[in-house]
Write a structure and sequence with these properties.
By secondary structure, this protein is α+β, with helices and mostly antiparallel strands. It contains ten helices and 20 strands.
Amino acid sequence: MSTEIHLGGLTLPIPDDLDFPEFGDRVLHTAGDRPNTDTLPVLSDPAADHLDPQLAARRTDVEEKHRRVAAFLDQNGYDGMVLGRADSLAWFTSGGDLGQYSLGGDLGAAFLFVNRHSRAVICDNVQSARIFEEEVAGLGFQLKERPWHDDPSRAVSEIAHNKKIATDGTLPTSPWTDELTRLRALRSSLTKLDRQRMRELGRTLTLSVEATCRNFHPGETEADVAGHLAHRLLREGVVPVDLRVAGDDRLARYRQLTFKSAPIHERATITAVGRRHGLCAAVTRIVSFGAVNKQVRAAHGLAAMVDATCIYFSRPGESIGGVFRRARRIFEKFDHADEWALDYQGSVIAYSPREIPFLPESPVALGPDNALRWSPSVGPTRSEDTVVIDPRGYEVITEAQVWPKLEVVVKGFPILRPGILER
């Protein structure tokens, strides 16, 4: 394998007109960093004509996912499927917000029962009006309502009585089969609407992270920076499922640290996972106050090489273990043979941040329209974007905007990876 990195002449400067004032609320002085179109999810009108373009697109998407579930039932001899996880509900309802209890929680506010010919929402009387008016209006769902104080599993059992049922693991005491692992693989192949939404989410997430990197000051804490970023994301309708801010060299010691009250003096590595319409995307960027020293630059160069290599060889039909072995050879070639063992290396990402983890010997084959987040780290640096693969190649949906870039050439093919922003 021929892999090399070219740094000279490829760093993109930040235009002067993107500098921001040194006074006031820095979060509110970033209108230019927001998407140029409104991507905040619209509120559904339950009385809208079912030919409304947005509603029609969702209905088509739900029908496609229902066909996938029906095929799964046929292939595995099931009579129906019960879904109760928030990410499962968002997937099948094409972005319906049926979660409950917390922004990033696993549990849904309802159950879905799906067989070959129908689909029903099973929920309590408190949730039913909101769900049917704001989340699934016009999408072809039936309703089975229960009093809020009744045992929810009883209502599910009644509708699925004497049937062979697959579940997504939300009814652990039931006699039904937990098929969450295979369901994750089923929903990881993005539909046309999923890809469009993922693309819009990726751009919004990237703009928010990069704007945050350009606008905080030395001495602010990791928690301060996380707060700035959360503000940007929430106003765009993006739920911050995971925010990690690592100041200075803390990432070298704790590869998956959370943000703390530690002040940032030299640089910060920011990782964000955002969710909108149920879909998740992930991105990492590094910003430095002043010039980056040689050791950090070399570490980031290696992380970018591994990242680019993984992206290049991630193709439909290729096993995760096969791509992982190529990544390990890059680490070995540059005298970091054990670096991969110090951190998670990524996962398939879709309606969950970690649909399918990337494990060293995994035989799981990547599929068309899978979204991937390879995230190799070396010392205090990390290289990570979200990419979607298909038979034509790959699409970086969190592509760096006004940001320095590195060019990595893999097998003669140039791949751009985000560099380190020097302020």
